[in-house]
Amino acid sequence: MAAELSRILDYVAQLEQVDAAGVEPMGQPEVTVQRVRRDVVRRGLKREAALAGAPRSCAGFFSVPKVLR
């Protein structure tokens, strides 16, 4: 771990030598535009159709194995 930390510190020292005068700091490397689509209400699946593809169901719901005891 010491060797890895040493390489990281060497790299930081190398970066400190770069002339960054006049370079404006930035908080995010890419400027992205959040594109959103219109919310459109659509008819969903009927319960029977959704449960038809499920490996197991019980009382009209998906049945899944326990994760926690």
Number of beta-strand segments: 2
CA-atom Rg in angstroms: 27 Å
Order of helices and strands: HHEE
Number of helices: 2
Distance linking N and C termini = 38 Å
The helix content, as a percent range, equals 25-40%
General form: elongated
Task: Determine the structural class based on helices, strands and strand pairing.
Answer: mainly alpha
Report the sheet with the most strands, covering strand number, pairing sense and barrel closure: 2 strands, antiparallel
Low-confidence stretches: none
**What fraction strand?**
5-15%
Largest sheet: spatial strand order: 1-2
Overall mean pLDDT: 89
Kindly describe this structure.
The protein is mainly α. It is 30% helix and 6% strand. It contains 2 helices and 2 strands. The chain has helices at residues 2-16, 47-52, and strands spanning 57-58, 61-62. The radius of gyration is 27 Å and the shape is elongated.
Question: What is this structure's SSE topology?
Answer:
Layout: H1 2-16, H2 47-52, E1 57-58, E2 61-62
Antiparallel strand pairs: 1-2
Structure, briefly:
The chain is mainly alpha-helical and 69 residues long.
Question: Keywords, please?
Answer:
69 residues, mainly alpha, two-stranded antiparallel ribbon, 2 helices, 2 strands, 30% helix, elongated
